[in-house]
Amino acid sequence: MEQVRIGLIGHRGDAQLSRLIDELARRQAVPVPFDLTDLPAYVACHWEGESLRFGELDLASLHAVYGRTALFPQPTFAPGVPAEQAERVTFPVRESGALMNALVAELERRMPVVNPTASLRYHGMKPFMYRALRQAGVPVPEFAVGSDLAAAARFVHRLGEQVVVKPLMGGEVLLADLAYLAAHHREVDRRPLLLQRRILGRSLRAYVVAGQVVAAAWMIHGPAVDWRSDLEEIRPVELQAAAARACCCSATALGLLFAAVDLEEEGGAGGAPWVIDVNPGPMFAGFEIRSGLDVAGPLAGLLVALARGEREQGVLGPDRAEHTSHHKVAEDGEGAAGAGP
């Protein structure tokens, strides 16, 4: 069988790509990195007709691509910086980002890409993402977004001040009660707020590959609102049926072949699951170490299968049962070997 070549878009030193390189090699595939670390510095790219080259890499030699980083921002201004300096700062980044976006779109025309750029737009438009998930029947907490301070205060008051605020693009979650709005009222003039009902319960993260949950864990944390800033332990769990459906439906609704889904089980284990976020380019290397679960293996299996032209259904291959069995443990945590920090 022909040895397939898998392009990996990202930065050197990324632990996720290192794990994926190992798993691809284990499947006799050839991992081919696109190193973006030095962009927008000079890289000898050239696209002419059907010829497409990135440095020394002939992109026509690839069979599939994984974009750890595959959607590139295009800044148009630098606040507080003199115009001439801002032009020097933003123009190279904008032009390099435009080239990379065009390059990935062209790759999608030629071969399978995980994840397609059309699906990545949701991550930078969280309100639209939540709306799309709701329309697909995914349980998403109530949310409101905008720069109307009075309307925001009414939303917070109606929900008994159990509200969080988060960026419209990216992470960081904070408690947003009426005191928060009062303290940050001037910020509303400069940026809109995304508010969401706070779910109190058990924090979970699940990884979905090709429409199947391949790893899931309880993200045990302290009193912080955002578990990422206060993570104490990652303990494998078997998702209840409703939570698993919500994860798979989320990835399908957003067109993601690979995704991490963050959930909250309201009231604790076994409670109603609510989808808090869906990440199309998640980190997973640290999760694997602390949970003992395998994410890179199923993802590598998907990429190899797509490169070989196999159908998406069942693309995880003959070792699928091995991967899924690793994350199935009792809900009370028994048998969760290697789940410590």
Notes on the protein architecture:
The protein is of the alpha+beta class. It has 3 domains: 5-114, no CATH class; 142-197, Dna Ligase, domain 1, CATH 3.30.1490; 201-326, ATP-grasp fold, B domain (D-amino Acid Aminotransferase, Chain A, domain 1). 32% of the residues lie in helices and 25% in strands. The protein contains 10 helices and 16 strands. It has helices spanning 15-26, 83-110, 117-120, 126-135, 149-158, 178-183, 241-253, 285-291, 296-307, 320-326, and strands at residues 5-10, 30-35, 45-48, 51-54, 57-58, 64-67, 113-114, 143-146, 163-166, 174-175, 193-197, 201-209, 212-221, 231-236, 258-266, 273-279. The strands form 4 sheets. It has a 5-stranded antiparallel beta sheet, with helices on both faces. Strand 9 (163-166) and strand 10 (174-175) form a beta hairpin. Helix 1 packs across helix 9 (296-307). The longest helix has 28 residues, at 83-110. It is globular and about 60 Å long.
Name the shape in a single word. globular
Which range does the strand content fall in?
15-25%
Average pLDDT for all residues: 83
Distance between the termini: 41 Å
Lateral arrangement of strands in the main beta sheet: 14-13-12-15-16
Name the CATH architecture of the largest domain: 2-Layer Sandwich
Order of helices and strands: EHEEEEEHEHHEHEEHEEEEHEEHHH
Strand pairing plus helix content: what structural class? alpha+beta
CATH level-1 class of the largest domain: Alpha Beta
